[in-house]
Specification:
2 domains; Methane Monooxygenase Hydroxylase, Chain G, domain 1; mainly alpha; 66% helix; translocase; flat; 124 residues
């Protein structure tokens, strides 16, 4: 037979978390309804990001090249994020750290060359 009393603190924690998250989500919605800020109108529902109405269906598919450029941006942004701590700790890591980073940069260079050859960087 299993002693279920060990799970009581976890259940209490889950109940408190559920109650707090419900209050955080539902309280602002209730206050907005009571104070009258929930009055949708044509002006409130109009486009506000770019200033002009959308010219095509928002559910249309993006070109695959858009995603390729986004992935390449993330990869090279992460490269920059890894280079700064590596440069700061290079004295501690020594030759092993230097060699590891050169392998990492080599892999990224091969990936960039592959993407360049496949035309992922060409935009029409």
């Amino acid at each position: 037979m299993t002693d279920l009393s060990q799970y009581l603190p976890i259940l209490i924690f889950l109940a408190v978390a559920l109650a707090l998250s419900s209050v955080i989500v539902l309280l602002p919605m209730g206050v907005a309804r009571l104070t009258g800020t929930h009055n949708p109108s044509a002006d409130k529902n109009s486009e506000y990001e770019c200033g002009f109405p959308a010219f095509e269906d928002p559910r249309s598919q993006f070109d695959v090249r858009f995603y390729l450029v986004a992935i390449l941006f993330i990869v090279f942004d992460l490269e920059a994020a890894f280079l700064f701590p590596w440069a700061v700790s290079l004295k501690l890591t020594g030759w092993a750290g230097w060699l590891t980073m050169m392998v990492f940069l080599g892999e990224l260079a091969i990936g960039l060359a592959y993407a360049w050859k496949k035309g992922a960087l060409d935009w029409e």
